[in-house]
């Protein structure tokens, strides 16, 4: 029987908060049960196991992140949209480290099927890139470049991986300037050369 006051939403939100505190990989049903002051079994009425708990954290975090990014890019285009997108991405990654780590989890397709989060993420990302006039397969390649750059930069920044005395925010701005130039001058795939 489920403990009064516990809901799946409340359990997942508490787990996401815990992920930010102790690291996503350290979130377990037992650790979460301690947070609530209940036995592990009380939580199994809301999540089947630790895998489902972590997947639900990933869905929550992905939704939060794309909501923040969508709000930042609304009404913007071109470089302004790129910078707004990137800054919102970076802020979320640094402010919510456990949740951000969760967004890189491979999810059960059945769990994802009931949401619109990934469709919305694609829509917002492709919308931000619209001003650069890219089409497939260039669009996919550009998204991969941006995601790799943003993730790499944020991951290194989070662990203090930039040891040079230059301000990391200044380097971030220059990286975004370079990405804008790359997107404006994207080498277009030719029909016969798309391997």
Radius of gyration: 19 Å
The average pLDDT score comes to: 91
Please state the overall shape, judged from the principal axes of the Cα atoms. Answer: globular
Would you list the SSEs in sequence order as H and E? HHHHHHHHHH
CATH topology: the name is: Tetracycline Repressor, domain 2
Q: Show unreliable segments.
A: none
> What is the level-2 CATH architecture name?
Orthogonal Bundle
Helix content: 55-70%
Helix-and-strand structural type = mainly alpha
Distance between the termini: 55 Å
- Number of domain units: 1
What's the name of the CATH homologous superfamily? Tetracycline Repressor, domain 2
Percent in strands = under 5%
Could you give a quick summary of the protein structure above?
It contains ten helices and no strands.
3D structure, described in words:
The chain is mainly alpha-helical. It has a single domain (8-184), classed as Tetracycline Repressor, domain 2. The chain is built from ten helices and no strands. It has helices at 8-22, 29-36, 40-43, 50-73, 78-95, 97-102, 109-113, 117-129, 138-158, 168-184. Helix 1 crosses helix 4 (50-73) and helix 4 packs antiparallel against helix 5 (78-95). The protein is globular and about 55 Å long.
